[in-house]
Amino acid sequence: MTARHLIVHGRVQGVFYRDWTVQTARSLGLTGWVRNLPDGTVEAHVEGPREAVEQMMAAMQDGPPRAAPTHIDSRNVDEGGFAEFARR
């Protein structure tokens, strides 16, 4: 198991990015959360099997059709023991 804290930059607010993140993370069996930040970025905590987390991070570089992520800041963090993946 691994956990990552992510900050996604680019056009990621107002384009269904959070809902898409929830759906994608749940489909990969991941837990954690996602939320908008006041500076226009999206913050997420993603945890689960390393391969699934890596898949999620790769998918987040593209996002849903109207999104245009430019880059993702990522760091390893401790697991939070979440029961599901939720939108905050």
- State which percent range the strand residues make up: 35-45%
How many structural domains in the coordinates? 1
CATH class label = Alpha Beta
| CATH topology group | Alpha-Beta Plaits
Poorly predicted runs are: none
Class derived from helix and strand content: alpha+beta
Q: What about the largest sheet?
A: 5 strands, mixed
CATH architecture: 2-Layer Sandwich
Measure the end-to-end span.
Answer: 23 Å
Structure notes:
- The chain is of the alpha+beta class and 88 residues long.
- The protein has one domain: Alpha-Beta Plaits.
- The protein contains two helices and five strands; from the N terminus they run E-H-E-E-H-E-E.
- A five-stranded mixed beta sheet has the order 4-1-3-2-5, with helices on one face.
- The radius of gyration is 12 Å and the shape is globular.
- The two termini are 23 Å apart.
- The model has no long low-confidence stretch (mean pLDDT 97).
Keywords:
globular; 88 residues; alpha+beta; Alpha-Beta Plaits; 5-stranded mixed beta sheet
Topology diagram in text:
Layout lengths: L1 E10 L5 H11 L3 E6 L5 E7 L1 H11 L7 E9 L8 E3 L1
Parallel strand pairs: 2-5
Antiparallel strand pairs: 1-3, 1-4, 2-3
Short description:
The protein is α+β, with helices and mostly antiparallel strands and 88 residues long. It has helices spanning 17-27, 50-60, and strands at 2-11, 31-36, 42-48, 68-76, 85-87. It has one domain (2-41, 50-80): 2-Layer Sandwich (Alpha-Beta Plaits).
